Amino acid sequence: MNYFFKILNKFKVYFFYLINKQSREFFFILINRKINTLINKINPSKENKFNILRWCNKKRITENNFYRQLGIHKPRDFFIDKKSYYYSAKLKESKLKYKMGGMAHLNLIYNLMLHFKPKTILETGVAFGWSTLVFYLSKKINSSVISVDLSYPTASSDKFVALALPSNIKKKINLLRGIDYNYLKSFNQNKKHFDFIHYDSDKSYEGRKKNYELIWNILKKKGCFISDDISDNRAFYDFIKLKKINFYIIKLSNKYVGIVFK
What is the pLDDT of residues 188-234, one digit of tens each? Predict the structure, then answer.
């Protein structure tokens, strides 16, 4: 029964994309993504020639070991340092009628932000806004954050985007609505570069493949790039092999996060 309601909710989302003139173009893009995902599940030979989950588990390192390699000897705990913000956001999340996606690796983002102090930050995928909250609570005053999100175009969902942020912070965010690829392509064409990029948007293999390439182009030298859920398919594996770059993999619950430095 839960599966039925999940399918029904997904149908409603796509329906709203279709009937709203401003979001109609997104309908066809999302349908194409869904078809490609289903094809890859039916015929996984293209991206799952070996067990990517096994590879991630083999290559992962502990979070503390990762911090030591970067010279972070006393990592901070976001959930303790900013517990009032965290509990406030959790309370809001508990009242939502539908799930807006889970948390990213908040402690990882928090410690990297404090350590590297990036001036230009980009995140793709906002939803409830957990990672956005961390960026704004840990960034320096003169730093800027650009958030890209394609939210559900229903009458009610718009107000839930970045709901994790207190109202005084939410009013300040630079939120760009639309397809991640379009903005990444625009940044690349306009030679706009970033010190820190967090990717949590299009999870399809083809989507990641083309987006990773653009992200690498707009990432500054010595910049940090984090991608969530890299065990979903082999896009991250193909990316680091193609670029021949060093990488780190950290496990969070049953998910894997990929990190690279340019």
Answer: 999 999 999 999 998 889 999 999 999 999 999 999 999 999 998 99
The burial of 156, by beta-carbon neighbours within 10 Å (0-12 exposed, 13-18 middle, 19 or more buried), is given as exposed
Give CA–CA dist 119/151, Å, rounded. 26
Cβ(162)–Cβ(128) under 8 Å?
Answer: yes
pTM score: 0.85
Q: How far is it, in rounded angstroms, from Cα 74 to Cα 59?
A: 24
Q: How many beta carbons lie within 10 A of that of residue 69, not counting itself?
A: 10
Instruction: Assign residue 55 the CATH number of its domain.
Output: 3.40.50.150
* Structural domains in the chain (count): 1
- Residue-range definition of the domain harbouring residue 39: 2-261
What is the distance between the alpha carbons of residues 210 and 223, in angstroms, rounded to a whole number? 19
Measuring CA to CA, which residue among 244, 130, 246, 252 is closest to residue 198?
130
